[in-house]
Amino acid sequence: MDKSTKCALCPQKAVVHLKYFNRKLCKQHFSELTQDRIRKNISKNELVDKNNRVAVAVSGGKDSTTLLYSLANFAEKFPIELVGITIDEGIEGYRSESLKVVEKNYKKLGIEYKILRYENEVGKPMDEIVKKDQRLPCSYCGVFRRDLLNKAALEVDADKIATGHNLDDEVQSILMNYIRGDFSRLARTGTKTAADTGFVQRIKPLSVVPEKEIALYAMLNNFEVYWGECPYSHEAFRSEIRDTLNRWEERSPGTKYQIYNGAENLKELLKGAIGGAILFECEICGTPSPSVICKSCEMKKEVR
Ligand SMILES: [Zn+2]
Ligand SMILES: [Zn+2]
Known about the structure:
Layout: E1 16-18, E2 23-25, H1 27-44, E3 53-57, H2 62-74, E4 81-88, H3 95-109, E5 113-117, H4 118-121, H5 126-132, H6 137-155, E6 160-162, H7 167-180, H8 183-188, E7 201-203, H9 211-220, H10 236-251, H11 255-273, E8 280-281, E9 288-289, H12 295-303
Parallel strand pairs: 3-4, 3-6, 4-5, 6-7
Antiparallel strand pairs: 1-2, 8-9
Residues 282, 284-285, 287, 294, 296-297 line the site of one zinc ion (ZN).
């Protein structure tokens, strides 16, 4: 067992021990590795093309803030244009606070941005919606947020939407879909969505970086991050999967990467076996939908 507290690559003090890699790294070498992973994920999987206009979904948390700075860094060497998109769900004390952080970061980087609010788009802020309905707020929020991110991206004329999903988020979703037997959704997860779905294509440049490492990276780089958690957040199944995965990872380091890589391969096989869903145009808003009225419009009606 290596008891040294030094970086494996230089004499500096190690700040992290990557067990799956059996390596201790200093601040500089850890940061370089993280940047390198993100850059390689973008180029290897062709997440962006030259002269793309990329809408970056930013909530102010560690993941999306790291995403914003990473893409700004990437854009210095590769010709892409960035525009921030942020959804204000209308959650007093949570989103109101994180929005301040988000706007500071946009301004610091000199990135144009657009904020869409539930109050205007859905008709009510989340604080009002939860008062009226006992159903899990996350189910509403997930549908509305996805819908509004797409709308915002169309309004700013973006070619892609980049989101801050990390390795843990991805692996949790893979297992959840697997356990539910939802293979068509499993085939649609991954570091980028298909280009021909009728929605703006989504890319996940951070999908190869574990959550803990993103938190560390954001701290070491002094990014201004909002660390608060949504007061309505309650996803029991996901939390259970998260805990289980962390236990597996602790016992056999590398498990998360193995599941992730396995699913990437499986996805290729599934693509041929599972045909795309037949999509209509929603009668109310015109977005592609498997039913004549899309989920978002249906939920908006309920909420109003
Ligand atoms: Zn080092
Ligand atoms: Zn609709």
